[in-house]
Amino acid sequence: MTSALSSEQTNALLAALAWQIELGVDECISETPLDRFEEIAKAPAAKQASKASPTPLPKKKAPAPEDDGLAQAVTAAQHLATGVETLDQLRSAMEGFDGCPLKLGARNTVFADGNPAAKVMFIGEAPGRDEDRQGKPFVGRSGQLLDKMLGAIGLDRTSDNPDKAAYITNVLPWRPVENRDPSTDEAVMLWAFLERHIQLAAPDYVVALGKSPAAVLLDTPVAITRMRGRWMAPPRTGGKPLLLTFHPAYLLRQPLEKAKSWKDLLSLRAALDGDQPKIET
Ligand code: URA
User: Fold this and answer.
1) What distance in Å separates the CA atoms of residue 155 and residue 125, rounded to the nearest whole number?
2) pLDDT of 136 above 60
């Protein structure tokens, strides 16, 4: 027989759960402890014998179940992304997508902020704790620095004027535990959403903030300290000019690098003012 929990007990359980999530717990485990050493010791001889006489490896490796899961999630994301025609529909499609385990530990799907009509779209890595709580990208310390960077070249994410506005999103819409970088699998899985996001927002210019968005948009690993400041026009932005620059979080850790970042911002300002950026191939 089960007895109903008091609201005090419910709140205590929710607080305990929230704390677990804060600590990075992202899966449930059984209540009963298992002694894995004992399990191995009791394993039937046949299983242990495989150690003595290993069976030859199959010539072609069978796909691991997790690869299969990734492929299915990629297909599901592609299906959803290609089926939407507006940014609101895209947001709903992403909120309804259950293929990414990060969503289980997230409070919000962090879609975008700013003015979607803006001429320039900024793409960061993934929400942090503050963004996860508020459901908006770049609202924590990095976001405050980003706002200052935008302000320095006359941009403002709250502006209604597309010439002065900024539109901001991330490679991942869900917070990775302990704020780690997006994994390759996560970026691959969710690429269809970001691709559609860029197509629907249709900015004139795209700015990759840091190495993760740069790698996703160029579809190759990027050494951002070497590549920053460059303009490219990759297929993944639909040929739209893409500027690579540092992530604001990196600038908070390495304030001396702000001078280089300032150069990049001036180059963006010049492009917005009509100077053709020098696209590298
Ligand atoms: N860092 C990011 O890359 N994105 C955010 O939204 C916040 C911090």
Assistant:
1) 20
2) yes
Residue 3 included in any domain: no
Structural domain boundaries, residue 178: 69-272
The mean per-residue pLDDT over the stretch 127-155 comes to 98
Q: How many residues does the chain have?
A: 281
pLDDT of 25 over the 90 cut: no
| d(CA 277, ligand 1 centre) in Å | 26
**Ligand 1 centroid from CA 177, angstroms:** 13
Question: Ligand 1, atom 7: nearest CA belongs to which residue?
Answer: 138
Question: Residue 137 maps to which CATH number?
Answer: 3.40.470.10
Mean pLDDT of 58-63: 54
Does residue 12 lie in a domain region? no
pLDDT at 11 over 50: no
Tell whether the model's pLDDT for residue 222 goes beyond 60.
yes
Q: Is 131 in the pocket of ligand 1 (CB under 6 A)?
A: yes
CA of 114 to the centre of ligand 1 (A): 14
Query: How far is the C-alpha of 174 from the C-alpha of 183, rounded, in Å?
Result: 12
Q: What is the Cβ-side half-sphere exposure of residue 241, based on CA atoms within 13 angstroms?
A: 20
Q: What is the mean pLDDT of the chain?
A: 86
127 Cβ below 6 A of ligand 1: yes
The answer to whether position 245 is within a domain reads yes
The conformation of residue 239, written as its DSSP 8-state character, comes to T
**How far does the centroid of ligand 1 lie from the alpha carbon of residue 131, in Å?**
7
Provide the pLDDT for residue 171.
Answer: 98
pTM for this entry: 0.78
CA distances from residue 49 to 41, 56, 126, 144 in whole angstroms, order as listed: 13, 14, 47, 60
